[in-house]
Amino acid sequence: MAENCDHKCEGCSKGGCAERDFRVSPNAESKIKKVIGIISGKGGVGKSLVTSLLACKMTKMGYRSAILDADITGPSIPESFGESDKRADVVEGKEVLQPVVTASGIQLMSMNFLLQNENDPVVWRGPVISGAVKQFWADVIWKDVDFMFVDMPPGTGDVPLTVFQSLPIDGIIVVSSPQQLVRVIVEKAVKMANMMNIPILGLIENMSYVKCPDCSKEIYVFGKSNIEAIAKNYNLPVLARIPMRPETSAAVDSGDIESLEVPELDEAANVIERLLAKE
After folding, report:
1. Pairing of strands 145-151, 32-39
2. How far apart are the two ends of the chain, measured CA to CA in Å?
3. Helix (H, G, I), strand (E, B) or coil at 6
4. C-alpha–C-alpha distance, residues 8 and 21, integer Å
5. What are the backbone angles phi and psi of residue 166, rounded to the nearest 5°?
6. Edge-first strand listing for the sheet containing 32-39
7. Contacts 24+ apart (CB under 8 A), 10-15
8. Are 102 and 181 in contact (CB under 8 A)?
9. How far apart are CA 39 and CA 154, in angstroms?
10. Is residue 7's pLDDT more than 50?
11. What is the pTM for the complete model shown?
């Protein structure tokens, strides 16, 4: 939707929101093949975790991955990769930035890489936050990226709207958790994507269950999953149900997420990989 839109499409001097192109060009030196948005209708469902795990998964499959951390006011990506002490470098002689590169070669750009102290708050209004997201796309040199994952803040507000309109999104993955409350929130995110004609690759449920270490029984801490019902209602695939594991929390807390193996994400990785086959 256009900025300062009065919602009166008849006689709109700008041709109407649907006909306007808000896309922002990447830096001339960037090369990015596919862009996947990771979205959730609410916070606390593990969206950043899923973003990081997918980037690691595709890297282990031999692809070049990147993460654009669009959660400007609540970035957590640097901490997961043990890169929170790094700062983005300005390219000499140019007003552009180089992303921080992890041990396995994943390129990262996050607001924390631009702050003097990682715990400094970002107290900005919506338009300024949206502008920062565009700059992460246009003013960063992303080198030979096969898959860029965009970690979006929760909800259906300014940043998801900016990402959907400004970046060439090839598809999104909606992240949820088992609680019944999340169902309505997930449906809002799905409906927003449908309204804006953004392809939905599928749904991923995080914190689905805990597996008993003695008998391997699945224990549903947050109640039985309803992800299948949501998926059926919108004719979407369930790409993964990720269990809670102590080693996952330990790896994230220690900045060692790249060491994790998450076989539950195999199907999601296959779906993402097939995007390249469509070129």
Report:
1. parallel
2. 28
3. coil
4. 18
5. -95, -30
6. 100-101, 107-109, 65-69, 145-151, 32-39, 171-176, 200-206, 238-242
7. none
8. no
9. 7
10. no
11. 0.90
